[in-house]
Design a protein that fits this description.
single chain; alpha/beta; TIM Barrel; 2 domains; 8-stranded parallel barrel; 4-stranded mixed β-sheet; 18 helices
């Protein structure tokens, strides 16, 4: 494996940590939940009940970091899709789009609202693509909005065997999603041992946790569902303009939210999750996460996650705009940078237009990009056999290695990367193929998967139970 790149010195890491402790010790976090504030006060936090602000000392943070799980299992619908999460994992996990509201057509360049059929297509892609480990649920616009998240999650369980990230509107809806998880898992014990979905606990920048975030966290904790501790600032708007200031505030918010999480739900597994955006202050209408400055923030945040020995995730694929050529340029640079920096989870494959638009071809391209980068990250075997000194001696001057035993022996041991999308043929062959582009081949791959991929069905009684839960949600919430 290639060594990890560290953008900051250890002294810099310590400075960021101390600045983060200063922020949550002086500014603190505003928490609109009296029960959470009361519990935090009982374990030693400084709580201003009048202003709903909790402040945490360094000792409290260090005790929290010592007890938070450093590794945990994420389960699939079936066990072959389980995987382990930890900061020590060197080849990253890939998650597909979540939360998008529109779909981009790469052939017509038109955008339209997402439908339930698109959600099912996304599930088929995630199930079929080898490098996609987690299916994110999206905002389906042809389902009544008060319960769309419940139906989207039901479809995810129906049509994908992999771990899901179940976005939810609120704690009231989450209860129905948890019932669905139990129906598939079979028991609360099974679900806790192999959680087949994970959730989200967000701190709103700057330094604010709403009431319902706490309510959802308590539900996740009751069922031992892993959560992403989500921090998504806009540099210069909801975090300081400087790179160092944004890193310090992201880290402060994560540490403060972690204290809250572990106080209310001790031992609950978590990711250090950040979505980093910045505003173009020249125009004030362009918000991007694809700038080199944001990649610097990302590298520093990942180094802080490794300092705490916690798994990390970034919305590395959430690309501004819908220009496929720019997406591919950014994706190649971002994935390599993230892997070099030790990222555990690559998030939002297929996201365009800042996370509003889903593009299935982009999911296929992300899968291929990660396959390519994983092969580079794996390095190569170096020993007396692979060095080939004897082979060079046998072939001698101006010989050929095609027929040498060394080539035949290692041809299968050191397999070359075989692309499913890239075309490395000559101009003549490209011309004969009708000048087909990478986007064209990605589109063909999407159509092939949707037409031919088969996902084994859930048991009939489980399907009936999921349907009953969704209908009960509709009756109660619509």
């Amino acid at each position: 494996m290639i060594p990890l790149y560290e953008i900051m010195s250890q002294e810099d890491v310590s400075k960021i940590h101390r600045a983060s402790l200063d922020i949550i010790g002086r500014t603190g976090i505003k928490i609109e939940h009296d029960g959470a504030l009361q519990r935090l006060a009982e374990v030693g936090a400084g709580v201003d009940f009048k202003n709903h602000v909790a402040r945490f000392g360094g000792d409290m943070v260090e005790k929290t970091l010592a007890r938070v799980p450093k590794t945990f299992t994420c389960g699939g619908r079936t066990v072959e899709f389980d995987f382990e999460c930890s900061a020590q994992r060197r080849l990253p996990i890939l998650r597909s789009s979540a939360g998008c509201i529109n779909r981009f057509d790469v052939l017509t360049r038109a955008v339209r609202p997402l439908t339930r059929r698109d959600g099912i297509e996304s599930a088929y892609l995630a199930d079929a693509l080898d490098e996609v480990d987690i299916l994110g649920t999206m905002t389906l616009c042809d389902i009544p909005q008060p319960t769309y998240d419940i139906h989207a999650f039901k479809d995810a369980l129906y049509h994908c065997r992999k771990h899901a990230w179940a976005l939810t509107l609120n704690s009231r809806n989450l209860k129905y999603q948890l019932e669905m998880m139990l129906a598939v898992a079979g028991s609360r014990e099974n679900l806790a041992r192999r959680p087949l979905a994970s959730g989200i606990f967000s701190i709103i920048s700057p330094m604010f946790i709403p009431h319902d975030e706490i309510e959802r966290l308590l539900l996740y904790g009751r069922y031992r569902i892993p959560v992403r501790m989500t921090v998504i600032p806009i540099k210069g708007v909801s975090s300081p303009y400087t790179i160092a200031g944004t890193v310090a505030m992201i880290n402060a918010q994560f540490l403060g939210a972690l204290v809250v999480q572990q106080t209310l739900c001790p031992g609950l597994p978590t990711w250090y999750y950040a979505g980093i955006k910045s505003m173009d202050l020249r125009t004030t209408w362009s918000i991007s996460n694809a700038t080199p400055e944001n990649m610097l923030v990302a590298g520093a945040v990942l180094q802080m996650a490794r300092r705490y020995d916690l798994p990390s995730e970034l919305s590395i694929f959430s690309f501004p705009g819908c220009q496929m050529e720019q997406y591919m340029f950014y994706m190649g640079a971002a994935v390599q940078w993230a892997m070099m920096s030790g990222l555990t989870g690559l998030a939002s494959a297929g996201n365009f237009d800042g996370g509003n638009v889903w593009c299935p071809e982009a999911v296929v391209l992300a899968d291929e990009t990660l396959r390519y980068c994983k092969r580079m990250a794996a390095g190569f075997e170096l020993d007396d056999g692979t060095l080939g000194v004897d082979a060079v001696q046998r072939v001698g001057h101006r010989g050929e290695f095609l027929s040498d035993p060394h080539t035949l022996i290692h041809l299968r041991k050191e397999k070359p990367f075989e692309s499913r999308l890239l075309d490395w043929s000559s101009y003549e062959h490209w011309q004969q193929a009708g000048f087909q582009t990478l986007t064209d081949r990605a589109h063909a791959r999407v159509e092939e998967i949707v037409a031919h991929h088969v996902v084994p069905e859930l048991q009939p009684e489980t399907r009936r139970e999921l349907d009953q839960i969704a209908k009960a949600a509709d009756r109660a919430l619509l």
